Amino acid sequence: MSSQCDKPTGGSAPLIAFVGPLPPPLGGFSAITAEVLKRIHRVAEVRRYDATPRGARWRSAVSALCLMGLLLRGRPRALYVALSGGYRKLLDGAFIACARAGRVPVYVHHHSFAYLDRRRWDARWVLRLSRGATHFVLCRRMADLLRRVYRIPESASQVLSNAAFVEACEGTSRARGVLTLGFLSNITREKGVFTFINIVGAARARGMNVRGLIAGPVHATIQAEFFAALQQDMAIEYCGPVYAQAKREFFANVDLLLFPTQYVNEAEPVTIWEALASAVPVLAIARGCIAAQLDAGAGHAWPDRAAFESGALDWLRDCLATPELLAAMRLRARAVHADRHREGLEALGAAVHMMTGRGAAHER
After folding, report:
1. pLDDT digits (tens, 9 = 90+) for 290-318
2. Among 228, 267, 281, 356, which is 20 to 30 Å from 301 by CA?
3. Final residue of a domain: which of 100, 129, 159?
């Protein structure tokens, strides 16, 4: 964890206190936090506290205390907090408490459903401190749960979708005889990799012409089990971690993305937006905001793993039997992303303007 001051390129600018995890490591949460920082930094001076654990603990403590001192003195124009889904939110709460004491406006960006699907004491404390704050949420369901679980008024929530940070990709022709199913994630049991492997095996056992393509870093705790499972099904290929051009090539080779996550922190996966931006429909388990991502015909979401396993097989059979169905889903995927990306950019521009008093009313 560290604190650092970033200044925009010339001219006096408002000071923004910024708290959140930054890469490395690169994940959905840290990637989005870095993008928000980039947008704010264009128009404001930023004193940032990187909440990703790294380096000496004493330096982290000194950095936190320095930023808290600024907040207590009321120096920054605003405090932005990318709220942790785990117990690190207690430190987030300390920053919020200092901002309130210094009468600094607070903006809380939510990225997890871990404390929304069930009430947690640490979230209750932090969100009580954040009364009067503006809450950036990923979808309306997140705002509704904040209201029902923690009594945060819906008027205090502003939807800021992760779609804002995912650009459209060029479409590619996918005229192939085999249906390629993709899995892209940090490869863990909770993210559903073994469910994916089971689906590919079950589909092939029913005579469906499918293959699997898996990409992402494998967590050490499941490496042996994962590679043993791959040895049992030669129709599944593992690509390793993919980034930038390699990720674009992955989506170019995939017909459908399967996202059978049971991860407790799942919110609004960037991977799903990346798939839709590449005209790849998605079949998923409806955790967090996923159902809202796929509610306009860009795929389908089921309530739990059992429903997913049976329902996804039916969808695969229909896609193989009726190529026009898959073609229509590809068009919807691209259209849904385009609409949500445009709305997200407008919300992002409004959020940055709200915090800094600078910049256009919406991003272009």
Report:
1. 999 998 889 999 999 999 999 999 999 99
2. 228
3. 159
